[in-house]
Specification:
7-stranded parallel beta sheet; Rossmann fold; 9-stranded mixed beta sheet; 19 helices; single chain
Length: about 550
Amino acid sequence: MRQKFIFVTGGVVSSLGKGLASASIGALLESRGLTVAIKKLDPYINVDPGTMNPFQHGEVYVTDDGTETDLDLGHYERFTNSVGSKKSNFTTGQVYDAVIMRERKGGYLGGTVQVIPHITNEIKKRILDVNDGADVAIVEIGGTVGDIESLPFLEAIRQLRNDLGKENSLFIHLTLVPFIKSADEMKTKPTQHSVKELRGIGIQPDILLCRTDRLLSQDLKDKIALFCNVDKDAVITGKDVDVIYECPILFHREGLDEKITQLLNIWAKKPDLSKWEAVVDTIRNPEKYVDIAIVGKYVKLQDSYKSLHEALVHGGIANNARVNIHYVDSEDLEKGGDLTIQFQGVHGILVPGGFGDRGIEGKMKAIQYARENKVPYLGLCLGMQLAVIEIGRNLAGLKGAHSTEFDMATSSPLIFLIDEWVNQKNKVQKRDRFSDKGATMRLGAYPCKLKAGSLAFKAYNEKLIYERHRHRYEFNMAFRKKLEACGMNVTGISPDGQFAEIIEVKNHPWFLACQFHPEFRSKPFSPHPLFRDFIKASLKGKQERQRCRKK
């Protein structure tokens, strides 16, 4: 079978959920025995999202090969077997940079370089460069139809329709059908105008995904089909859900996968969605519940911790438990107050990654509280670094202990800038504090050796693991003996002995912090071992406290 391409666009407003829709389409096609690859095209000028403010862009997702990429790739990897890489996401910045560099080297033989055909050709080349020869490539176009920034991408996929042929390409447009309460009816005009805008640049959508808060009636579907020039069975309700893993199920009920295979002339088996139904049922009907506090500084935009949020949900699935997540602003903890009240009813505390000194002391207060009160603790990246500093200050007596990221003059630099390491391609990387910010971190999957008998070893049940990293600073191994003498234990280390990857605290029910980001490897059907055991420990601690209160 010749490789098929599905192009997903969005209209009316942003944040309609194109990434989730694309991931759900991928899940549906995989349930029918097909293989998929998913790409995200981002129209912003930034080369990648690595230096972008999380409040603007949400989380930066990291792939195995060390690519800093869009959070939608997290949806793709959680919902499908597709493995993200450098090929899975590209931006306007990358496209223009490639074209300009080629022009500087004389690659265009002195010709005038223009958006059409040079920019669009570069976009087309990158779209067609699909990983692993998948049966179907799903290509999500970022932004909203009508945005100036998206025009070159839309022109490129318009051209690709002619290049690939109708049976090998498909346009799916995600739009909005709002319910107007005062009129007590749903309005199709936004969808009509969005499709009109798309047709104005030469693209006729084959399927419409209509984001709504309720199911569309057949009369409304017929009306949309008539005015937007699509088949009646090509108008699909994209109803709001409280559990995102229900999306593939609802799309199947609407006939989306059947319509896709029909239009692309694909012969495939009937879908098996039993595993999705089981996940949704576990989330909706858990045997128990547990409350987890995430202490961070980006809590006003929860998409900043999207993969983390989902990994905790997955940990709950593994324990047949609902995880109630409470976001705690670390700056609020710095203002003082009784942490016993702040963390009342919380059964586990998690401090995620981050950059900058805002809210740092508040995070360390939370870590100290978890350590002293035997509350299960999971620290990720910065959450590990701050745990080391807290232990250094309060157990090892190093009152001036800090990270050189926040205090260059600290008397006890427990955390310091790594200036040299070997990357996945076995090349030596060198950095200092004056280096460029973009793509200058230790990025991607690196190996870690686990200490037998540790919490980490019990979780993974393996001696050697690989996890994804995104950091510039590391634990200063010169302080290892002093901190281990006070109750800290390095239980995960790089094979060359250069980097501490995991630390634990002795005489604590469950206190583990890691330099890497395990949330990027968690899936609903395969919860990450650390999140599984963190939730398990939090549930156990909850039960023990309940027994103590009864006594």
